[in-house]
């Protein structure tokens, strides 16, 4: 019957009694499966972990710069790993680094949550922050903001 129609006979369930077969265009079926897999790959998000390094003796302006970079990463939907590096005698005072990481977590609390609390590992203390928004939401929000900015620029150009 399949040869008469010009299609393929595909065995669906060989373990069933009797085995189940279906008449279909197998090439088209394989193509549709490949398309669905490609679309699924495009829609999946890749979570990136960005790393920022600090020292306990960081100056205020440098701290603000690092904090702004962390906020930018988090708004982009990426996770941020903050590494506090202790050198020399700084290793005897890990509580200073812990306090600084706690302060940083409080400063970025509106865009992030603490995924892994500060933990001492040899000369380094690490903490991981996760974004409150998902990456897909963040990307969509950035696209909308970019489109609004371009629209405003076009309107300003038309007025001139």
From TrEMBL:
> What Pfam families has UniProt attached to this entry?
IF3_C (PF00707), IF3_N (PF05198)
Q: Which SUPFAM superfamilies match?
A: Translation initiation factor IF3, C-terminal domain, Translation initiation factor IF3, N-terminal domain
Domain Translation initiation factor 3 C-terminal residue range list:
47-131
Q: Which UniProt keywords apply?
A: Cytoplasm, Initiation factor, Protein biosynthesis
Report the record's Gene Ontology biological process terms.
ribosome disassembly
One MF term from GO for this chain? Answer: translation initiation factor activity
Identify the stretch annotated as signal peptide in this record: none
Q: Main location per UniProt?
A: cytoplasm
**What is stated as this protein's family in its record?**
Belongs to the IF-3 family.
Please give the function described in this protein's UniProt entry.
IF-3 binds to the 30S ribosomal subunit and shifts the equilibrium between 70S ribosomes and their 50S and 30S subunits in favor of the free subunits, thus enhancing the availability of 30S subunits on which protein synthesis initiation begins.
Q: What's the protein called, per UniProt? A: Translation initiation factor IF-3
What taxonomic classification does the UniProt entry list for its organism? Bacteria, Bacillati, Actinomycetota, Actinomycetes, Candidatus Nanopelagicales
């Amino acid at each position: 019957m399949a040869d008469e129609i010009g299609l393929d006979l595909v065995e669906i369930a060989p373990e069933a009694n009797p085995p189940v077969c279906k008449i279909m265009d197998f090439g088209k079926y394989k193509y549709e499966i490949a398309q669905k897999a490609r679309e699924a790959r495009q829609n999946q998000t890749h979570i990136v972990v960005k790393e920022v390094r600090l020292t306990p003796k960081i100056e205020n302006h440098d701290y603000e710069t690092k904090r702004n970079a962390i906020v930018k990463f988090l708004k982009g939907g990426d996770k941020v790993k903050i590494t506090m590096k202790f050198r020399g005698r700084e290793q005897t005072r890990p509580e200073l680094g812990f306090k600084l990481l706690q302060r940083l977590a409080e400063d970025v609390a509106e865009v992030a949550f603490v995924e892994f609390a500060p933990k001492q590992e040899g000369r380094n203390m690490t903490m991981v922050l996760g974004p409150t928004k998902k990456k897909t939401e963040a990307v969509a929000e950035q696209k909308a903001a970019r489109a609004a900015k371009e629209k405003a620029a076009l309107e300003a150009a038309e007025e001139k």
